[in-house]
Fold these 3 entries.
Entry 1:
Amino acid sequence: MPAHPPTSLQTLLRQTELWRGSEHALRASNPDAHSPGLATGYAALDASLPWGGWPANALVEIMTPLWGNGELQLVLPLLRRISQEGLPALWIAPPCIPYAPALAAAGVDIARMIIVTPTAQNLLWSMEKALQNPASSLVLGWPARLNGKHLRRLQLAAVTGQTLGILFHQRNIAHSASVLRLSAHAEEDMLAVTVLKARGSHQQARLLLPRQWP
Amino acid sequence: MKSPLFQRPLPQRSLRVVHSSLSPQRRNTVAPSRRRGTLWYALCLPQLSTDTLGTVPRERLQTLAQALDCLSPVVSIQGAGQLVFEVGSTLRYFGGIRQIRRRLHAIVIPLLQAWGLPTDIQEAVSPTPAASLLLSSAACGLAIRHRDELRNALGPLPLHCLPLQEKQLRKFHRAGLRYLRDIWRLPSHEIGRRFGRDFLLYLDRCLGNVAMPVLPCKKPPHFSSHVDSGYAVENTQALQPCIEQLLQQLCKFLHQHELAAAHLHLVLHHERQQPTGLHLDMRRPSRDPVHLSLLLKNRLDSLALQAPVTGMTLKVHEFSPFQPHMTSLAGIQEALQNPERESDILPLLEQLQARLGNPAVRSIHCRNSHCPEQAAEDLAFGEDRKAPRLANTQALNKPGASRPCWLLPQPVALLLEEGRLYYQGSLHLLSGPERVETQWWTQNEIRRDYYVARNRHGMRLWIYHERESQNTQKWFLHGIFD
């Protein structure tokens, strides 16, 4: 049997697979263990996430009670930045085709937006392929049906392709494998966001974000 | 078989002309070691003249030209059953003009026999294509090596051999000019003045003073290959080995021709039923067997086989030249920080299009219109290149006018009860009205007042009030903001 090289505690701690309860310890001891996050555009939300923004290569769930309840506000700053850097963003099975003049007015480069409208059977396949591809930097998905198994596969695909995938759906799914789960709903002119789960953090933040006029 | 090349007595004027003639009796023919400049081999086949048979000879000439591709880098079809090809550059390779002639006959005569045509060939070799064509049409059977011999060799040709019009020939006749050597004696500016500058240009081309443009004949490449599966295959997975085989052949073909395939057409043959055709358009031409195999596999996965497959044919007839930057070296692109990252995503989009169909992958565009429905457009990815693009401006969006991120494909009628509007709860207006009046010149005149409203759940909605509408319904939901 081959002799294993001696592993010190430090090397073990440096591994990202090892989950540690306290995000402060994580960031203080080993800042490069987690890839830096992508700023969400909302300072309050950045502060409450362990990555300082959206996790770079992971699956994110955004749950809303209804479709069109302000959830697009959460990703508009990210879309704006990604498209202005010349990177493509895929919209997979959006509830309807996004309105180009509004996105252009919000500063999003619409030439970088790619809309995919698969059939119901091919929706998850398309999501997986898009997430697995390193060239697609951001994948937004509106899956019709979803369970824990699907989420695990999509999360693995996002890690493989080093892609940020954001899923919008309305149901709370048990045994979710996603790295970050948010629930969002509109409250008057504010957007109430609850961090339900963020890997590497155990705080459940509840934030009220200003809702920008598109 | 005897060709007129050897039937005529050879001109015995000077040693050099004799030396470079195509006589089998002469040992010292054009030696590869004395190769200087270009040499053009002309073939004149009166039996394939376009004038007598219509369109078929053109195709036959093309077949001939392709068959001669192995002898020369440039083969060109000239009108009236004439071909000319460059042999100066291949002379050393084939070991002299006689070897080329032997190979040429081995190619041309069986073809002529197969078409049931007489096997007479008129041929000539000279340093200029125009002179070669002229000599071959006059059935002189000369091989002229050097440009300075051209004048002598062309001299005895009667003028009626030249491609001239009847009127001009009469003019020469009246002037007492019978042969080309009569023309040589005249000063060139006089020839130009009397017989036209085109004639002067033709003479200059014959003598090699002016280059003659020669358009090479290249048939568009075409790939077609068939594979029998040997037994009836019932599921698409089992077709994969056949597909790999076909793609290997295709990629070999593409490598040989320095091309990339712009589409694939796969035909699945069944035992009794009509064959199934699969057409795959590619966003970016490719010759990577892995990529092509992935695309075909995705397409086949989504296909339900109607009947067992007994064989398949792969056809490609649209190609584009292979460009090396299509395959970037790993890491170079990152190193150069190339902003054009779209090319990276294309393989994924092609994969998606292959399985979901072309219209399933779309791009969005702004259009110059006041009408909200027409201000946006979504096109299938790939079609967008043809469409006029409006820059990312909001020139038509008035400042302060807000547009929703989601525009419903069809406006949804709103419930109006006791003066209140309802859509998933009662609405209350946040801003408005914004009047949109346009398209009065069409049947579908638009006269709407748009408002931004919010419902019980906090959804921001874009609603409008139809002015002067015939039907009773006047309030509609048109968009959802975020």
Entry 2:
Amino acid sequence: MPTLTINGIEVQVEKGTTVLEAARFLGIPIPTLCHDDGLVPYGACRLCLVEVSNGRKQTLQASCCLPAEDGLKVLTHSARVERARRLLVEMYVAVCPSSKRIQDMASAMGVRQVRYQAKHETCIQCGLCVRTCEQQMMAGAIGFSGRGLNRSVSRPFDMTSELCRQCGACLYVCPVCESRCQGPQAESTLCNGCLNISTVCFQSYDNAMCFLEPCHACEIGGPFRADVQVKPRSKDFTRIGEK
Amino acid sequence: MLKLKSPYEIKELQLCLEASETARPCISVCDGSGCKASGADNVIKSLRAELDKRGLQGTIDLKSTGCHGFCEKGPVMIVWPEKVFYNGVSLSDAKDIVNSVSNGHKPVERLLYKDPATGERILHEHDVPFYARQQRILFGNNGKLDPKDIRDYIKVGGYSALGKALTDFSPEQVVEAVKRSGLRGRGGAGFPTGVKWEALRNSAVRPRYIVCNADEGDPGAFMDRSLLEGNPHSVIEGIIIGAYALEAKEAYVYVRAEYPLAVEHLTVAIQQAEKAGLLGDNILGSKMSFRIHLVQGAGAFVCGEETALLASIEGRVGEPHPRPPYPVQKGLWGKPTVINNVKTWASVPVIINKGADWYASIGTERSKGTMVFSLVGKINNTGLVEVPMGITLREMIYEIGGGIPKGKKLKAIQIGGPSGGCIPASMIDLPIDYEALTQAGSMMGSGGMVVMDEDTCMVDVARYFMEFLEEESCGKCFPCREGTQQMKGILNRIAQGKGEESDLELLDDAGWMIKETSLCGLGQTAPNPVLSTLRYFRDEYEAHIRDKKCPAKVCRELIVYQIDETICDGCHACVRVCASEAILGEKDKAHEIESAKCIKCGACLEVCQPKAVLVH
């Protein structure tokens, strides 16, 4: 049974355990987008990076794919890890700003601006749907096609595969298709937290109630916190993250 | 050819071949890719026709060989046994060459290499400055042998290292020798080869596999290609010795399908080695059985990364997967696998033959042996050079490369392929070894070396490489796929004069993030061209952003073409070549460029005799 150290805590795990599993066993939260307990680790989203020192060198490695080995020293929230994650999430927001999960991550990590050009894509190619279809549903009806710029999740010859049973598992596992709350300025790249935008989100919004769960940004700073006073809208306000 | 049944028979055959060598002169013409492009095939044809015409086929031999390295002066040839070196040979020279060889070997003066410094003609290849500073232990035989004839290779001592390994070495001793030689992976990362082999030997899982990585994808690099085309048996011999040391039964050579000649020569070489009893069952009468398979890649740059390469051999999509587990633990079909570059494998016979200590005596403290570079770009002597590690960039560029053409100033050297970094001219005394290059923000890579002169815009260079990497990123991991796109977007903006001051910090941040978080070597090195140019040429970025000027006058959006009325003699030459009809003016009167129509192609600049066209 390998013994490793995570954030200074010694932990003994069974052989074959990953560092991510070991850290979660200790209750240390590590963000992920492409990980699912029932699937073979993929290592594509890179959010689960941890700083690993193995003798002389200290490198960042994806904890979801890293087998827990004897003597491994792992830091899950070192300054280097935090900076890498924050910059990564900033890019995630730019690529897929409509996703609640990504916006929530950005708020939780304190991402205050998005300097990249927004791309408004709907897929981050985490591969969860592809792997679920293949490994859990035993269908393999969808897969990746193309390379780099042109890579996308698709069906064989762009037709519904005979293998597809329309079970909907691919929809269920998608981490980014849950929309962020549609308060004012829902088109902005970075969810501002309703506090920043002045009046409350759901009541005054186009006379329609927002039925989505509040984004993390709203929750920490918005109308859902009774103890925070709502700021009046100021004239010179510019949206954070937009130039 | 008879099957060789013991290591001694190799030695016997070599002696036989040496003895049978007559004093017949031999013209060996370089038919490598570089010289082929300059018309070597036609030169060979006309030489053959000339020999036929005079009935000299039996008295003078003609051989087409692999790359000699001096591609700039191609087609090149050597006339044996005098070793007279001719360069820049054309069709019409065939007659004179045959004349000189048949009539007492008086060299053809005008085809000899002319030293640009002294103006003297140089007779022998090894006296040419381009070759004089090189140490060609891998490429030295290229000019001597026909790559399609195994006997040529055996004649120069080929497969003797295999014989030596089988008789004098135990497998462990071979690994020990490679370890002691200090040989490091020539594919780029520079991992010690012996340590890798030892790690494989420590694994109890069988079977074990050997892979030769010949998926050379760097723009402007052709070292592996030339070695496979010119001397495929040296690579095969290295692989067989590796198989003996690692007790492997099968090897795969992964070659780019874009290298048809390399594939052809390798296929022939493998067949010949099989016939000669060097591959197959009971190699040289021993109990060892070993086969080599050839796999052709489908043109993805990322497949040069070892885990992607393995996936591709297995028939899966060529995308990398995270390490650990490393290929030596879990490689091809889940079995322990050693992957090495073409040049690494070709170095193994040299180490066995000449000894690990001899090999370790070449180079610097931590980088041993020789490294092959393809020297390209703004340099007088383009070609393949093999130099001992630790040689300085100055020696490389001014002594071997012959300096920068047209008396221009050196600006930067980009080493290590598309994801290498740019080293500024001020660091020209940097020794070439793994550590020094990494410290300078570049890397050894597989050995591409692009020389840039003062006319090169570093923002444009960074943009070009980013564009290449954006297309070649496999797209599996997020930072590499999206990061390269974003970085290219920012560089585009800067090159168009739309950049902002904050863009530089953003490039720094994005580059750092991609480097730290990417899954494989491609992403981890992708920001190098940008980060290194930002480090050494920040002022150039700032000029693009603040002054909206491109100091090297390359970025089209930031330059203007104008005609100096006082100089223009109204010859109309520019008017004729201007494709967009942007130049106005009557004949014999000063012309004018209409900037709205001008596409900044530079055609007028080239044709203007009185140099009246100015670029701002």
Entry 3:
Amino acid sequence: MSLAWISKLALAAGLIVLPATGWAQSVNISYLTHWSPETVALLEAAAKDFAKANPDVAITVRAVPFGDLLTTLRSQGGSSDGPTIGGIYDLWLPELARDKLVAPAPEPVAAEVKSAWPAGVVSAASVGGTLYGIPNEIDVYALNYNKELFKEAGIAAPPKTWAEFKEAAAKLTNKDKGQQGFGMINSWAAGVVHPFASLLVSNGGNLVKDGKPALDSPQAGETFALYEDLIKSGASNPAMATADANTTGPFLDNFVSGKTGMIIMANWWESALKSGMGDKFANVATAPIPVGPSGDKPHSISYSWMTVVNAKAGEAEQKAAWEFLAWLNSPKSGKNGASAMSDILMSMGILPSRNSDIEAHKDKLGSEFLSGYVSVLADARPFPVVPGGQEFSESLQQTLEALQYGQVSAKDAQANAQADATSILERAAK
Amino acid sequence: MLAPAVTLIGVFVLLPMLLTVWLSFQDWSTQTPFSDAGFIGLGNFREIFGPTSVGRDFKTALLNTAIYTTLSVILILPLSVVFGLLVYQREVAGGTTLRTVLFSTYMVPMIAVALVWSKLYSPSEGPLNQLLGLVGIGPQPWLSSPRSALVSIVFLNVWQQVGYFTVLAIAGLTQIPGSLYEAATLDGANRREQFRFITLPLLRRTLLFSAVIAIINAVQVFEPVALITQGGPVGSTNVLTYHIRRVGIERAQGGLGSAMAVMLMLSLIVCVSALFAFVNRKDSSE
């Protein structure tokens, strides 16, 4: 056989085999998260389990610090080579959906989510009635306090009202020991704004009402004044409040080392407290947010996270991504009827949001630390998810930090916050 | 033949700059194609210099960048000359080792520097406060106070960059003929006079180059802010590059971000031109 014939046969064979190789070719999808290496390892293990039944799908997990997550999604999510799946904070969804960076969930996935998750969580994962993500975690704020410091200060029970809260903060403050009564946070938008918002809603106020900022209400005025009182009295020291890009830093160090008596924080920091405190974690207790003079009962701020799929990814990648996410969040993937996602979340002390997951983890959710969070969930108010929400949050952060450092009075802080929020939300709504 | 070089410069240098200038006059989201941009004239510039939070944050970031740059240059240049003089002395034992040690800080990746310095600055457990405590000085807030956070980042920058500028200073010192010092010594000039009338004037060109590079490096500061302070507290370390990233990428406000980048570029051009004009004027008056 001549060389020419051999070449022709080889070419023909190649053309016949090509479609078959296309079929056998694996689909590569990537998952972008801000989780720690230990948690990423759990996610990788779940991806391996999925790959057993789906050998044609290869999943890689990539983690970036929380502070870089949105930037990474924005800068890389616009290309087909960007992350196929991203874990996002619900506040970011309206703008990511507006910019067509995230794909709407396929109908079967949307139907499953709508039937298996609470309506409020489904709404936070939707824009204009279209579901964009599979919700996973829900976070809520509560008062964390150090029982040992309470005992030393002669405080018998956690404060229920703002008056008791201020009194406890004063008793817990000991400047000689470098100890503050109440720990605020700065240099991290959500860390600054969410505790303030929790106190505000427990005082009968709102950040945003009917799509418009409501920081000019008397209830908001009282909340700004509470912050001013705590700072002026020395019960809260802003120099002990700094956070870094990984949402850790001095504010956390001061609480774990027993230099902060109380802090308002979310359930997810259970893992950070445990690793920082070791056996002393038993000193930490949880209580509802103290009620303000204009409030009716303790409320809290809640927010959720979800996983979304890159709208620019290829069709095969998007299909594989939704299949993986549907499996990861289904009762089939985890232990004892829980989803693998909820097992991962519970390893960090994060509350899962799927109804069946809450049931499956009932025992652990009843732990001393987490039960305090579960108990306030029913009366929690979702953080407003509106276009411009992230910028609004960052602007309020600046104002609250200026108040923390005594650069503005409570009255001016309130006026600035309302004016800034109005211009930001109006611009974003255009 | 200049054509290939001109083409390369045009494509890789001028085009992105011109594009940034064009975008600064547009209402444009970074998540949409350039074709979606809409001309709004000076709207973005009015916004960044206006009274709203956009304007306030931009002006704060511009001021922070100016303070950071000025302090960095003021500290780095004299220190580099002092270290250069110390290390350049041939009779000093271990001069080469000292030079290597000084330069090594420049080679350490910023992530490692940030990790170490954020712990050094820790208000409660930081070694810096512990050292100050030994000499009876109370704990300093460092990165935790809006009054000291930016200066703390400047110290970190000086620590990292001074070795590089010392090498530049040494290169300048080697260009000064030894005969000048010998003649000055014979004429009875002491060390201080030799430094003032020989070393400093003849180092002027080196110092000008160092100043320009130090300004450019300082204006582009990003990593320590992103890694350690996130622009806080109260925006006291929010420098322009970090702010442009937040506006242009996180919030996808490409037009506003481009207007800020254009202002940064203009400020840099004005500063460097003023520096050259100052030195040239001094040269021609002598």
